[in-house]
Each structure stands twice: as C-alpha cells, then as structure tokens.
Amino acid sequence: MTEILQVRGLVAGYGAAPVLRDIDLTVPTGSIVTVLGANGAGKTTLLRTLSGLLRPTAGQILLDGKDLRRVKVERLVRLGMAHVPEGRGVVAELTVDENLRLGGLWRNDVNAAVAEVYELFEPLAQRKRNAGHLLSGGERQMLAIGRALVARPRLLLLDEPSLGLAPKITAQIMALLQKLRTQTGLTVLLVEQNARSALSVADSGVVMSLGRIATATTAQELRNAYLGS
Amino acid sequence: MDRFVFLTFDGLSNGAVYAAFALALVLIWRAARVVNFAQGAMAVAAAYAAYSVTQATGSYWIGFAAALGTGLMIGALVERAVMRFVGHANPLNEVIVALGLVLFIQAVLGMLYGNEFLPSHTPFSRNAIEVGGVPLLSRYDLFVFGAVAALVLLLALLFTKTSTGLRMRAAAFAPEVSRLLGVNVGGMLTLGWALASAVGALAAMLVIPTELGLNPHAMDLVFVTSFTAAVIGGLDSPPGAVTGGMAVGLILSYVSGYLGSSVTPIAVLALLLIVLLVRPGGLFSATVARQA
Amino acid sequence: MTLQKHLIFTALGGIFLFAVTQQLEPFRNYQLATMAAYLCATAGLTILTGLNGQISLGHGALMAVGAYTMAFAQNGIGNLYLSLLLAMLATTAVGAIIGVAAARLRGPYLAGLTLAVALAIPAFTVTFDGLFNSEQGLPVSFTPPETLPIETWQALTAGGSALLVMFLLANVVSSRFGRAMRAVRDNEVAARLAGIHVARTQVLSFVISAAPAGLGGALLAFLAQNVSPGAFSLTLSLYLLLAIVIGGLGNLAGAVWGAFLLVALPDLTNSLTEGITASPELARKLDGNLALAIFGLTLIVVMLVAPGGLQSLVQRISHRIRKGRNHV
C-alpha cells in the first residue's frame, strides 16, 4: 500500500508559540484516517497547515511524494487535495448551483461533475437556485462535501462534518464517505470531535493533544481504548 | 413645460454617467470593501491618455479605446502596487492612501499637461433633436445612453453568466474558501480594480465633454455626485447604483435648471446629508448601520 | 502636574517665539506666521482623526468659515482679537452641525460627506455672492501697530494663537475627556460599556477640532489680508490630512511637523523649479504641482511603511540613542 499523504516533523502556529509541534502523520491511499482530540488540540490548525492556509515553520508535507511547502493554496485542489473547512464554508450569497460549480471551475467536465453531485445528494438538486444561506445545517454539509467532490479529489480533508448535525444525518454522511471510498478509492482525512461516529468508518486514527500526536494506531484499537467496546 | 421636458432628458443623460461611475465605486466596494476615493483622479488620467492618443491619431475612437485600456491598466497598477500593501488595521488607512493617490495623480497630470482646461470633443452633435418643436435630446445623449446601457448589460452578463464573474463574486464574499476551491483570489481582486477603473474611465470620457473640458480636477464633483448615487443605492448593490445615479442626475438637472448651476454642489451636499441621515441603509440594501 | 508641565512648555515656547521673531527676516517671519496658522488647523485635525478616529476632509471648509467670519468682523468691528474669537465661535457652531451628522457616520461615509462639504464651499460663495462676493472674495482690513514691522507682528499674533491652541489641546489630550476620545476610537462597544456616551464624545471631538481650524483660517485671512474660495479648495483639506498623517496621527507634536512641512516643502520645490530656467513652460507646469506630487507620494509611502508618521520615527530614533547611551 502506498501513502498519498506524508507529514514529517511539522511545526506551525500563529505568532511566536507554535500550535503544532513535531507532527508525523501517514495517510495510506484509499483509507479513511481520523484525527481525534479535544477542542484546541490543534486539529483544525493541522488541516489549515496541510492546505497551505498556514505556512509551517519546520517539517515536510508530501502529497504523492511532492513537497507542498512552496505550492500556492489555490493550486492544491488541482493536485487532487480538497479541503472542506471548519464551518463548511458554504458561500451564503451564492446559489447552491453556483457553490457547486465553484468547486471545479477549472475543469472541462465541471457540468458533469456537478450533475454527479446532484445524483449523490438529491435534496440539493431540488434547491439549485436557492442561496446558500437558506439551507439547513445538513444541506450545507452536503453542499460543502459535494462541492469538494466536484474537483474529483483523491484526498479529502474534512473538518468536523458532524458539528451541529443530528446523529441521523451524521450517520448518513459517514456512510457516504465509506461508499465513496469503496466506489472511487477516495482517501479521507477526517477531523472529528465526535470519536464514536468517526471511528465507525475510519481504518486508523491519531489522537492529538496540545499540538502533538499522542497516539497513532488502528481504528479498532482506538475503539477499544476510547469507546470501551 | 418644454423646459421641464428638456431638463428631464438632460438629467437622465447625466444620470446615466453618474450611474456608470457609481457602478465603478460599487464594483470595488464589493470586491475589496474599499471606497475608492482615487477613482475620479484615475478616470481623469485615462481621459488625458485618450486626449493624447486622439491628438496623435486624429481619431476619437482610438482615443476612446485608449481611455478604456489605460483605465484597466491604472486600476490593476493601483491594486498591485499600492492598495494590496495597505494595512487593514484601521479602515481609514485605505481612504487616506486613496487620497494620497488623488494628490499624486492630479499633480502628475498637471505637470504633464498643465492645469488649464483642455478642449474635449464629442463624436456626435450635442444639439438637441427637436420632436414636435420640443428639443428633447441630442445624438450625443443617445450615445451616452447606449454606452451606459451596453456597460450595464455586459457587467450583468459577466457577473451572472461567466465563470470569471462567479470567481470574482466568490473571491469577494469568501476569500479563504475561494482559495481552497482553486480561485486565484489576488488575481480576482486585481481584475476587479482594473474593471472598475475602466468603467470609471468610460464615465469620464462621457461626462467631461459635457462640462468645462479636460482638467486634473474634472471629476472631483462627479466623484462626490456618484458617491451620493452609490450611497442612495446602498453601496453594494449594482442595480441600486444605476437607479441612484439616474435619480441624482434628474434632481441635479432640475436644481441647476431652476435655481442656477452654481447651486449644484450644495444640492449634492444636501442630498448626501439627507440620505446618510434619513436612510442610512440606502434604498436597496439590507445594511442597517453605516459602519465600514 | 501635567497642567504645570504644559504651562512651562507654553511659556518657554512664548519666549522662544518672541526671540525668534526678532531675529528672522520679514519673509521668514511671514512663513513662521503661516506655519502657525496651519498648526492651529493640523492640531485640531490631529485631535479628531488621531485621537477620536474620525476622518474629515472638511477642515479646509471649516478654515474658510473662520476666514470669512474674520473678514466680516474685521471690516465691521475692526478689533483683531475680537475678530479671531468670533471666527472661532462661528466655526465652532458650524463644526457642531457637521459633528452631529458625523457622529452617525463611519470611515468612508464620513470621508465622502466631508468631501462634499469641501467641494460645496466655492458654490456657497457664488450662490450667496451678495454676502461673499463670489470668486473674488473679500478684503480683510486691519491697522498694524507702528512700533513693529508688520511681519513680526503677524508672526507674534499667529504664533501666540498657535501656542494657546497647543496649550489648550494638550490639556484636552491628557484630560478625562481625552481618554474617552481614545476609548471611542479604539473600541466603541467597549467604550459604551465603560459608560462613555459615544455619540456625545464624537460630536464634542468634532467641535473641539473645528474651533482651532476656524482660528487657523482666520489667521490665514489675516496674513493674506483677503479671503477667497480659491484658498480653501479641496486640496487644502487634503493638505491638512496629509500633514497630520506624515507628522504622525494621534500626536500633537506630529501636527507641528505637518504644519512645518506644509510651509517648507512648497518653498523648497519653488526654489527647485526656479532653478529650471531652460523652459518657462515647464517651470509653469511644475510650479505647485511638483510639491503636490511629492506630498501625495510621501503620503502613500508613509502609510505603507511607517503608519506612525515622522513623529514616531523621531521617537524611535531618540529612544535608540538613549538606549545606546545607557549601554555605554
């Protein structure tokens, strides 16, 4: 098995004191890896650093072996990495359709990709012309993930998709991730506070604490250790 | 009654120009949350470029194209070389830098061309066509309406029908998310400034021949008038800017026609004051407070 | 304590002013007087923009109010000090009106409104030409004392007025009200929670800032011996703004730097352009414009690289020198 993403000795932060200290992380191609941890452990900062929104002060980020440190944020999605940010990032002023197209404007097959997303998320198809701010929380999350899929990424970074959603909808989203993984070979790096739902689909996971990786092991062991089942 | 009809058409013609210039202000406001106080000076610079080109080639239309091209370039340059580096800690910073640009551009134009009024020609006659004995509007007025209508249509198409327009809107509303989605946000900002500056240049080309002529300060009052129009429209609404521009054009035409043209700046001040104090959100905006 | 300090500074300034005016040649005294007139306005604007965070492009217009009041009072009553006082009072009243509107506006909206005020000034003089005599303006008559050269007298009057303004404003800055102004500038919500009446503070700031601007305008009229709308164009307002930005916002010492620059730079560029004798056409185009271009460029550069202005640069350098000494 090859690794789509490798992180070595990553240090990053805002200002003088680093938030992330010496992060090592390996994401095998085609797997679902979850990043768990309490509020403020550095999970979101990790994703922001991976996408280049925050530049690391030390360490390496390799996507398919290619060093990302000098790559512009807006280039990354073309390299196959899509990031659904904290709070979903639905552009409230744009319609559902516009939000989706935005996900892959540089692609020749953007219309086909958008159509596929409508098949995947039927509720969105009924709200094409509605502005983003009219959507419910669950619809917004569908839109955010769908928009990321329009880019046809190989690696999807997801920041807390379950936040603020009913358990039933969270379960649907987790099932969808699993389906995408089996059908298209999509790799997912899933940041979650909700360990139970994340571990229900993940193959492996890491637990972050105070900006470091405290534990890195299989999902099964994490389930045993944290959920006691 | 004839006079009222004439003033109405004259006001609509001026209003079309104010609408275009207000649109330029709205474009930058939406893209960067900046009121570009240098827009008048930038537009005048483009009009001077047109003057030089027309002098050299003898063609109004080559000069006209040069004005639009210069407008694009000045806008891009101002954003890339200056505005991009202004600290956002204080919202006054951008205003002050833009005012510095006003001083600088007007002084450079004065050094190159002198501070006198230069004659400015129109491609069509400004004599009003009479319909049933009543002078209505001139061929030039028709040209102004046509140019502004084409502009409004093109901008509407650009923003609603093209992917570049979608990118520009997304970059303005949600810069960070747009970058994650592969949008070159910095490039869109530059494009927005360039576009707005070209629109401003178009407005300057249309309005300067109808006034005293070309001068480094030729757009000072047009700026304030169009700012008033944009504020009436709500500052972030393109349809509001167009409606506001037409309304301000009409009001000022009646004021200047019935009370004397020297009263116009006072009328602009009064209008702006009334709008800001009575309808702080503008007529087309949901914004409640005028805090920027 | 601060009051004593300010009194001592003002007294020293007065002695210095008196000594200097006795030494300078008439033209330099006239320049000193002009600088003092500008200083009144820049100090007022510093209070408004630097301390209270409100922008005004209308201070040139406020100076015009002061100048025209000066003309009316001088030509009607003829007592110089009374005229200066009346000019200040009239401008205070106008400042209060603009201030009430301004307190409801922020940033670009306030800038746009005050810009409209600046552009309306010539229109007022033309529309009410029976009163203001249109573009020609009004003469300002006065009888100079017989014991002093007229320029020395002008420099003493203007300099003395500027000192008084600086003394009063310095006390405002260090007062309770000065702290309220800064609190409103930094965070309106926090200021409101701390029990500060935000709108009242903003209106009062505008009034406090308008009065010295009116005095400065009156002094300019007194120096030029006439008043016309051309002297109070939008460019003057931009000059004032740029002077306080370059000098250093939020610092009365910065206002001094700014006023100095407003007089010194045009003088410098004038002597530069006079050097160009090759082409009178070119010299005519450069005249005035060169100074404006330098001003504009400086304003942009200062905002981009040293938003604290000249005064912060001076403070940084003197701080470093002092630190250097301590190390030795």
Automatic annotation (TrEMBL), chain A:
The UniProt record lists the keyword Transport: yes
PROSITE patterns tied to this protein: ABC_TRANSPORTER_1 (PS00211), ABC_TRANSPORTER_2 (PS50893)
BP-aspect Gene Ontology terms: L-amino acid transport
A Pfam cross-reference name: ABC_tran
Molecular function per GO: ATP binding; ATP hydrolysis activity; branched-chain amino acid transmembrane transporter activity
Coiled-coil residue spans: none
Keywords on record: Amino-acid transport, ATP-binding, Nucleotide-binding, Transport
Residue ranges of domain ABC transporter in the record: 5-227
InterPro entries xrefs: AAA+_ATPase, ABC_transporter-like_ATP-bd, ABC_transporter-like_CS, BCAA_Transport_ATP-bd_LivF, P-loop_NTPase
Record-stated family: Belongs to the ABC transporter superfamily.
Record protein name field: ABC transporter ATP-binding protein
Organism: Rhizocola hellebori
From TrEMBL, chain B:
InterPro entries the record matches: ABC_transp_permease (IPR001851), BCAA_transport_permease (IPR052157)
Name of this chain's protein: Branched-chain amino acid ABC transporter permease
Organism whose genome encodes this protein: Rhizocola hellebori
Cited CDD domains: TM_PBP1_LivH_like
Family that this chain belongs to: Belongs to the binding-protein-dependent transport system permease family. LivHM subfamily.
Domain of life, per lineage: Bacteria
Pfam entry (one): BPD_transp_2
Transmembrane segment boundaries: 12-29, 36-54, 60-83, 95-114, 142-160, 181-208, 214-235, 242-260, 266-289
Keywords recorded for this protein, A-Z: Amino-acid transport, Cell membrane, Membrane, Transmembrane, Transmembrane helix, Transport
Subcellular location: Cell membrane
GO cellular component: plasma membrane
UniProt-listed PANTHER family: ABC TRANSPORTER PERMEASE PROTEIN (PTHR11795:SF451), BRANCHED-CHAIN AMINO ACID TRANSPORT SYSTEM PERMEASE PROTEIN LIVH (PTHR11795)
Main location: membrane
MF (Gene Ontology): transmembrane transporter activity
A GO BP entry: amino acid transport
Automatic annotation (TrEMBL), chain C:
UniProt entry tagged with the keyword Transmembrane: yes
Membrane-topology annotation of the record: Multi-pass membrane protein
Cell location: Cell membrane
GO cellular component, one term: plasma membrane
Keyword Transmembrane: yes
Gene Ontology molecular function: branched-chain amino acid transmembrane transporter activity
Top-rank lineage group of the source organism: Bacteria
Protein name: Branched-chain amino acid ABC transporter permease
Gene source species: Rhizocola hellebori
Primary gene name: livM_1
